[in-house]
Structures are given as structure tokens and as C-alpha cells.
Amino acid sequence: MILIKELEDRGFVKTGTGLRYDSISIPLSGGRLKSTRADASSRLAFGLCKKYGIDLPKGATPKDAWAALNEKTGKTPQDFYSSSGEKGADKIRFGNIGTKKYVKALEAAKKSQPPKDAWRVTGMSEKELKEWHPGAKLHVSDGGSTIAVDKSGDIVAVCVGKGDGKKGFIAGKTLLAHAVKNGGTKLDSYEGNHKFYVKCGFEPVSWCKWDPQYEDLAKQQGWDPKRDKKESIIFYRYVGPGKVKNTSLKNFCKQTPAAKDYDAAYELRDKALGK
Question: 3-class SS at 33?
């Protein structure tokens, strides 16, 4: 039997009926994978063909699918299905879209989220994205989820799209896992997302309080003073799931003095990263 963890390490996420990665689905039975390695290999081959835009003839076999993938990518089944994860299914190309389409996808993903959560995701224009995060790898999943990693390792614009909701293929933790494997080392976010990022292996390093001078910008992102609190911004570095030493935001803020502003908190976090 295939180990569930082996597939999760490659980017698959559990759903109510099995494991999924974008267009690839492997069923579970009684909490265990009911597919044999050969079954999973077949599903992976056909799923990857779809991902790479390879049209297979009617009645094509898994062997045909692997041959088509080899012709298209030059890779063998072992390259795609390595247990090391280095060349596994989660290595499907990250950074798959241009700035214009990415900005539209981010806007759509934000609109698909409840307003009380969506405001914490910073939407950007094409100009802002290029100025704030030059050379960033921009990624949009099949379900419309967005994430980007800039040249400094900053992970930004993490937003689960409509097609990837609770019943979709991609979860926020999967987006972050892909970002980390593609150079992501740090991020910052409003305190309302703290528990989520800690569970994903991001450790708080510095923070700053809500700054009134940026209140109008927050309103542009959807913040509502009648509905939402004035949240602090927390700056994180990636250490890995289960390795965060101080998971309590309350304790962290008590033990760590607030930086004077956003830029100061940013610099403190980067200094801790040796940058």
C-alpha cells in the first residue's frame, strides 16, 4: 500500500474522499489508500498529462500517458514519482502566469472569500506588483488560488480561490508548501491569520501595531471599521511545521517589543534571517 504521508509530502492534500493535487485524485477507503502503487501511478500519469495540456487518444493506457509525458518533458515516471519528493508531482512548474492575468486572478480570489477575511489579503495593481515585488514568481492554481514569491523570498498574496474552497483541490497550506519549495522563506500578515501560519511552520519574529496612517489603504482592501478590529501585523520566518517555538500570539507580543513601524519590523525579521 502507498503511504499517505509519502503523497502528502509531494503536495497532495486530504479531502473527504481521498487525496488530491490539482487535477489528480486518489481515493481513500477507511482512512487508507485503496489504490495500489500501480493504480496511483496510472492516475498520476493521466493527471499530469492533463496538467501539461497533453491530449491523449481515446483508449490510451497508462503506458501511453507516460510515453507522452516523456516526449513532452523529457522526464521518466521515476522523475515525477520519486519518493524523495525532489522531482515529484509537487514540482509541476511554479510561477505559471504573467502579471496581468495574476492580478485579475488575485482580485477574483479575494472576491470569493468572506469580506471579514478577504481584507487581510493585499490586492495589487500590475504597477504595484512590479514595484513592490519585482521579478516575483506568480502562481495561480487550476481552482483560482493565488500565491507569489519575490526575489527576497517574501511570500505574498496568499488567497484560496473559489474553485479551491473547502471542497476544492488546493488548501492554503498546500499553496505555502509550494511557495517554500520555490524560494519562499518569510511573510507578514495581520494577526487574524496567526494560527494558520504557525500551523504551516511560520515562526513570528517581529511585529508592529496597527498604524492609523495606513487606515485608508486598509479600507481599500476591504477593512470595515464597524466589523473588523485594528489588527497588528506579524512578521514571520519559515522554520517548518511543528518547529515553531512560541505559537501563542499573546505570549509572543508580551515577550517581543513592538517595532516602531512596518519598515522597522520588516528589517528586524530580515536581520533574524541573516539578510
Answer: strand
